Amino acid sequence: xxxxxxxxxxxxxxxxxxxxxxxxxxxxxxxxxxxxxxxxxxxxxxxxxxxxxxxxxxxxxxxxxxxxxxxxxxxxxxxxxxxxxxxxxxxxxxxxxxxxxxxxxxxxxxxxxxxxxxxxxxxxxxxxxxxxxxxxxxxxxxxxxxxxxxxxxxxxxxxxxxxxxxxxxxxxxxxxxxxxxxxxxxxxxxxxxxxxxxxxxxxxxxxxxxxxxxxxxxxxxxxxxxxxxxxxxxxxxxxxxxxxxxxxxxxxxxxxxxxxxxxxxxxxxxxxxxxxxxxxxxxxxxxxxxxxxxxxxxxxxxxxxxxxxxxxxxxxxxxxxxxxxxxxxxxxxxxxxxxxxxxxxxxxxxxxxxxxxxxxxxxxxxxxxxxxxxxxxxxxxxxxxxxxxxxxxxxxxxxxxxxxx
Length: 405
Prior knowledge:
Layout: E1 13-14, E2 34-35, E3 59-60, E4 69-72, H1 77-81, E5 87-92, E6 101-106, E7 111-115, E8 133-137, H2 138-146, E9 157-158, E10 168-175, E11 178-183, E12 192-196, E13 204-208, E14 222-224, E15 231-235, H3 238-242, E16 253-258, E17 263-268, E18 274-279, E19 285-290, E20 307-313, E21 320-328, E22 337-339, E23 345-349, E24 352-356, E25 362-367, E26 374-378, E27 381-385, E28 389-393
Parallel strand pairs: 1-3, 2-4
Antiparallel strand pairs: 4-25, 5-28, 6-7, 7-8, 8-9, 10-11, 11-12, 12-13, 14-15, 15-16, 16-17, 18-19, 19-20, 20-21, 22-23, 23-24, 24-25, 26-27, 27-28
């Protein structure tokens, strides 16, 4: 959520010494991709001069490859990418972070929805102005890409939504035919959980806007537990830290909301800034990112989490239990999370999208040289939101089903 509070993070290459910079022979990778064997950079030596002093200003690129490119740390990543994966730009609007969060892909329309940044100089939003929700037609994207081997810039349309929609930051679905959004709220207007019709006139229905009479802090991300219609959402205090929300009145927590009964309760706490959330396909395991390292305009503390935590979902209560570290991010911090059907975990991080296998081993990155807050699987591939740009990666992996009927 918070990448734009710093503007686009400046990610610079870290080139290893000449003896460690080359990819290992014998590994066939997609065109433009780079295989980096961990054994080749485990030791850099006492004379190494390019140590990274901050995870927020240094991307690990030992082959010094020009972005965007696919970076492979484990050959199992090739099962996700396929043999001919490429990264191509499909939309761009320099100077405006139009594609930041809340990606929802609607297969029946072949349309991708998303929200602009709700903070920072590129968001054009704050205490007095809300972010906007946009959409891009993936059929038009496919046609444009088929007509050239270069990047394209397909038109993005902005939805005209009611004033009840303030600072959309998380989204999933389709949820019973609608877009399921969580908003961070703005000024004294409360954060909320809502559904929006993906078709004009985009009617809005607010499902929840308080915790027993208290406003939430600034809702960040949301997912539905597979096989149910029960929603789980994160609530950090970024709205206050960035300056478009009052001081928080609740801890930074993860909530469960059952719209059929109206019951809302906390299922996990002890986070600095809970951010992205995603379930495995069977709903037995959940991942929650903590971007505690970044307190937006309040500064950075590299001793705080840049971590994805893994929990078991209690089958009876649906509380999150048995918390453990799944992965610590080496660049930036983990934001939104998605899973593919092979169990790989994707998260938006400092220089693009990182991918881990189900054991928490980093197997690859989609290296953009810019911060990516979120991504979503579509029929055309993996769409990566990178604030001022959207990229499409034509990988063979498929995302877990996010549709609730």
